[in-house]
């Protein structure tokens, strides 16, 4: 071992590994410094759990001369044979180190050891990462060195694991904060919050296409079926829209019972409003098809669903609104109010997709003029358009 390089590595970790500008760069630089200090590493894995509704954890894999591989696993991993027969299960659940020399017959209880033997690996060890909140995460270390890791090299690994844990915990908390904000307030709003836009009244105006939808017959459904079933129905129903919205450049801002508010920002300098509105309409048509295909068995019956969505375009005020220290990152303005009124008109006319005159004028083709309708709170009636492939009975 190179004592001087090892101390430099420890000092670098204590300083937060600040020369690394990203998690993958940190992983690569850390492993490269370990090799320079005398650790004959072949494959290193870092496995951290996270707070995400669909992702159980993330893994970072380093090999010399290759890019760091980043992957995710869902909650199904907990039931998989690979996990139950893995040394990592012992690390995660018991916080214990697992050392498995490839030539040790006792190591054969772990199927991964045979795979590593085929790669020429001679030694494997899995070490826990203890975070300050009490959670346990994991690392794995392999070498192709003849005879495996020496006692001196294992002692160096043990000495590095605590400062390494602190840096990985900081990186994980940053990623987790971004992930939670993305999940609960949306990506663009989350970026602004993490960027320091956190005070009440911090707002900005932007031009956007606005999507406001709700589920037809939701009140009746809520009265007929258990609350747990209603929640499951809503989750399936929102899935029909959210994928299409995100795939076409939109961001879901808010769920309001069975209602959904989304925005599709328009870059005024690029002048892409026609392209944006076309994508919005495509998302609405995809959602219409998905909701039409949605079936949900309730008792002896199979429930089918219909929804309505209003599309509008205009300027909105986007930012922090609320009282005291309880804020919401949302959008307001006359354009949002009109979209909400148009959605009610969609219900009145039994249409699935309706648009304002402004939206239909930008996204031309395929519209039918439904006439003018009085709009509560607005001095002038609004001309409303529906898709030509729908009828009032649709």
What does this structure look like?
α1 packs parallel to α6 and α9 (227-247) runs antiparallel to α10. This protein folds into 2 domains: 3-185, Beta-Lactamase; 200-387, 2-Layer Sandwich (Alpha-Beta Plaits), CATH 3.30.70. It has 12 helices and 16 strands. With 394 residues, the protein is of the alpha+beta class. A hairpin with a 2-residue loop joins β8 (251-256) and β9 (259-265). Strands 7, 8, 9, 12, 13, 14, 15 and 16 form an 8-stranded mixed beta sheet that branches.
Query: Beta-strand percentage?
Result: 25-35%
Name the helix and strand elements from N-terminus to C-terminus, one letter apiece.
Answer: HHEEEHHEHEEHHEHHEEHEEEEHEHEE
Give me the Rg, rounded: 28 Å
Per CATH, the architecture of the largest domain is 2-Layer Sandwich
Helix content: 40-55%
Biggest sheet, open or closed, and with what strands and sense?
8 strands, mixed
Task: Please count the beta strands (DSSP E, at least 2 residues each).
Answer: 16
CATH level 3 topology of the largest domain? Alpha-Beta Plaits
Provide the CATH superfamily of the largest domain: Nucleotide cyclase, GGDEF domain
The outline comes out as elongated
Structural class: alpha+beta
Whole-number total of structural domains: 2
Poorly predicted segments: none
Mean pLDDT: 92
Number of helices: 12
């Amino acid at each position: 071992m190179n004592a001087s390089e090892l101390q430099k590595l420890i000092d670098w970790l204590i300083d937060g590994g600040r020369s690394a500008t990203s998690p993958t760069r940190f992983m690569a630089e850390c492993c490269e410094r370990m090799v320079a200090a005398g650790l004959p590493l072949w494959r290193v894995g870092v496995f951290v759990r996270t707070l995400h509704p669909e992702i159980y954890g993330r893994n970072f894999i380093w090999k010399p001369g290759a890019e760091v591989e980043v992957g995710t696993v869902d909650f199904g991993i907990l039931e998989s044979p690979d996990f139950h027969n893995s040394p990592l299960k012992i690390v995660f659940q018991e916080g214990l180190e697992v050392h498995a020399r490839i030539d040790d017959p006792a190591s054969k209880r772990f199927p991964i050891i045979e795979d590593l033997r085929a790669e020429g690996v001679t030694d494997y060890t899995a070490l826990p990462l203890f975070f300050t909140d009490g959670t346990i995460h994991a690392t794995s270390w392999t070498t192709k060195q003849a005879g495996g890791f020496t006692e001196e090299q294992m002692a160096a690994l043990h000495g590095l694991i605590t400062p390494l844990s602190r840096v990985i915990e900081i990186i994980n908390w940053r990623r987790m904060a971004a992930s939670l904000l993305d999940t609960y307030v949306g990506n663009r709003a989350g970026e602004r919050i993490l960027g320091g836009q956190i005070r009440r009244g911090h707002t900005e105006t932007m031009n956007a296409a606005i999507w406001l939808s709700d589920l037809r017959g939701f009140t009746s459904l809520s009265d007929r079926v258990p609350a747990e079933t209603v929640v499951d129905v809503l989750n399936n129903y929102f899935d029909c829209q959210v994928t299409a919205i995100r795939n076409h450049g939109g961001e879901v801002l808010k769920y309001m019972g069975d209602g959904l508010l989304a925005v599709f920002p328009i870059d005024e300098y690029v002048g892409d409003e026609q392209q944006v509105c076309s994508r919005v309409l495509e998302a609405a048509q995809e959602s219409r098809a998905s909701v039409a295909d949605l079936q949900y068995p309730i008792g002896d019956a199979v429930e089918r669903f219909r929804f309505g969505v209003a599309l509008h375009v205009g300027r909105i005020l986007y930012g922090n609104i609320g009282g005291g220290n309880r804020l919401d990152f949302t959008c307001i303005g006359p354009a949002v109010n009109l979209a909400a009124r148009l959605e009610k008109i969609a219900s009145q006319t039994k249409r699935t997709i309706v648009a304002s005159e402004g939206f239909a004028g930008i996204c031309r083709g395929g519209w039918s003029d439904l006439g003018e309708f009085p709009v509560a709170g607005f001095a002038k009636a609004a001309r409303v358009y529906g898709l030509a492939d729908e009828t009032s009975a649709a």
